[in-house]
Every structure is written in structure tokens, then in C-alpha cells.
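JOB MANIFEST
job_type = single_chain_structure
chain_count = 1
residues = 495
[input]
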Amino acid sequence: MRKTRIGFVSLGCPKNQIDTEVMLHELIQEGYEIVAEDIKADIIIINTCAFITSAKKEAIDNILDIAWLKKKRLRGIIVTGCLAERYREQLLSEMPEIDAVLGTGSLHDIVGAVRHVDEKTKKNRTGSDGIVDGEADLKEENERYRLAAESEETEEEIKAEKEIEFISTSKRDKFLSFRDKNTLSLGGDRAITTPEYFAYMKIAEGCDNCCTYCIIPKLRGKFRSRPIDELVSEAKTLEGLGVKELVLVAQDTSRYGEDLYGEYSLAKLIRAVTDNTEIPWIRILYCYPDKITDELIEEFKNNSRLVNYIDIPIQHISDSVLKRMNRHGGSAVIRDAVGRLRKNVPGIVIRTTAIVGFPGETEEEFSELCEYIKEAQFDRFGAFTYSREEDTPAYNFENQIDEQIKQDRYDIIMKQQMKISDRQNKRKLGKTLQVICEGYDPVSEAYYGRSYADAPEIDGKIYFSSGRKLLEGEFVNVKINDILDYDLIGKVVEK
């Protein structure tokens, strides 16, 4: 008998991608076949994002597109992740094509969900009415989880494992699981979906910052770090798989360890990883400016394998806007963090993001932001128009900004940044950069890759020619001889 084929659609940030990889591994271990093409799948899992309006729209569009396949051969649709956590009732009532919904705390229920959907849809195809005793199924599933549980499980974890519910519809039973997000087991084996030369590693989950525009704490739970020894073990495993660039991610990486060790411990984690592996590049994303410690700066300064690149989302520079956003520290803290990094770490690349059109943002406050972006000369900069999200404090703020004004401000600040980026790229002409080769583009007839200044899947590329064949993940030296918008062009030079 042919194995049930599972297709995956993973949306959102690298943190969500790691969740997808955990689910993939658990399904592969159970013997399911993973297929790359939707048309070949029996069941498709859509791991969604719901951070802002554009992410929600992307998720819904993907669900609708895949729902169309049910008219063909597709038997089941499972929705997981942030959209599922946030809009479970709406998904069930408005999209009857969905067969299972798993919240953000229910990653490890994916096998149970697939098994349930698989069995019920097979019955439907053979003439059964698809209606089952939900209580009996629930008891069976929970017994399986109990027997598989580790002996050191807490009562809370065991209780959380039983928080699976089923509802019946006129068409078929639907599998629902919404466990406590704060008891989700972090980490676990993964089926890596990135190219073998780089991988993300989630060092913490959740967030306690409670920015007024952000829904993440409600979707992902409280901030909790993974132990250093567990992360070192995962890093060693990834190194064994061929990873040459390890990217550390969390909602707030700079807060790492505060809950476990009573102090910010990101620098200690980085030292532990570099002491126990030989991974050439270690990169960190999503650091908050109020937690850029002197210890972390010293690690950048002294650790040659920690690439001189940091992502610090500032979101604004006006103290009045930052206060309304509930951002910690204010403009003085932002300026101080950027200044200390620039002073102590020569050549450090700083990436940041900002929100324009936040409720009440005046022309003066927006101009203040533009002036600071011009002053700071960030190497990488991205802007977002404020997304009004229900269940956040800012949703009910007065003086909501007109959408056209938001877009106009976005266009102004990004046009300004384009000039900054152009000047910075021109300074690289004639310089030789170490580049990790990511592949060959037959259209441009050139290899492409990234320097330490470019984070994967975020920043620009370097396109280059080579007198010899190169492998993905190979480090080469590239002399830059031209620029193309945000990208660089060069040629391999052999030393």
C-alpha cells in the first residue's frame, strides 16, 4: 500500500520555519512520505504567520489556493501556527475545507492530526459518513501520548497533553489541538529545510516585551530560553550535517538566559557554541537595543567566528512614539547601543527596522525618524507601515493614521535609505570579500552568495564569476567590481 503523502507550506519568519522542520521530522519518523509538489500530496499542512495584516493575507490566500485542490485529489488540509492560534473559530466557521487546526503550543500533535485526517478521509472515500465517537478517539490519542511520554514529565505537561478536543460537523470530524503555549517542549529533532550549509537555531520562544502594536506574546506565550547544553548539542548535530553558518534566532535573542540564569547570557551561549564546534560563521538576529551588553560587544570584538553583523529593530527614534509603543529605553538607549557597537567593533554591519504611521505619529516625529536614519547610516534598513492588529493596545489608540499617509511615509524613508545603501555599496568597489557560495544562476551565468554583511533570505546577494567550478557552501574570495541596486558583482580571486 502506498504511503500517505504529505505536503508542507511554511510561511513567516525563520522561527516558524524551525517549527515546520520539527513537524516534518516527526512525520518522517512515523513513515509518512513528504512531497515537494502540492499536486502530489494527499494531505497538506500549512504552517502560518499572523503577525501583521500582510502575513494574515498571505496565509489566507495560501489556504484558499490549496482548498481548490480538494476538488481534485487532495484529501485533507491541516492549518498550524499563528493564524491557527489567533483565528481558530473563524477558520473553522468560514473555511469548511480545513480538516484540522493546531495552535502554536501543539507542534507535537502533528502526527495525531495527520493520522486522524488520514483515517477519516479514507473512510469518506469508501462510503462512511465520517462521523466518529470523539471521546473514544480522544482517549485513544491521549493514551498513545502518555505511553510515549518521558518519565521526567511534569503533571502540567501531562495535563497539557490531554488538551485535545474534537468537534463534529455535518461533513466530517475535525481535529483541534490548542495546548498551553507556555508548556510547549522547545527544541527537538528537525528535518532541515534550508540548504545544508546554513541553518537556523531557535534559542528561545515567546516574548515578554509587550509592545503595544504586537500580538506575538499572545500567540507565542511568555519568554523562555533553552539551556546552553541543549543548544550546544543541537549546534554539534547541525555541524555534523554540514552547516557552515549558524543563525541564532528568537523573538528577543539579546534577552537569552535571563529566565534560566538570572542574567543576559547570549555572549556565554555564543562562547559555548564556538568552544564546542568549528562552525565558521555564527550570526545573531533580533536583538533589542536595551539589552546590548558590554559582554556581547566584547564577544563581537574578540570572537572571530561571530560575524560582525547584528539585527537591532529600533521601530522608531522619537521618544513620544517609543513611549506609545511601550519600547524600553527610549531614543537615548538606541543611540547609545548603536554608538557603542560602531566604536568598539570596526566594520560591524547593523541592520534595523522601523514602523511608520504608528497612531498619533506627527510629521515632526516622522521627520525625526528620517533624520536619525540619515544620521546613523544603517547598513541594512527595512520599514513597515503600521498594521492595526485587534487584541493589541494600539488597536484602540486615537489618531489612527490614514493608509495613504502611511504609504507616503514608507516611500519617503525607503527612497532615502536607497541612497544610503548605494553610497555604502560604492565604497565596496575594488575590495575583496569572503563569500559563501550559494549556487549558480544559469540566467545571469554567474555564481551567487553572501558576505558576512548579508544575512540569509533577508539581505542582498553577491554575483560573481569563477575560473573553476564551485560547490554550494564553499568559501571564496570575491573582488567587487560593480553594483546592481542592493546587490554586488565581482570575480573570484585565488590567493
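[summary]
Confidence is low (pLDDT under 50) at residues 126-172.
The CA atoms of residues 274 and 305 lie 7 Å apart.
exit_status = 0
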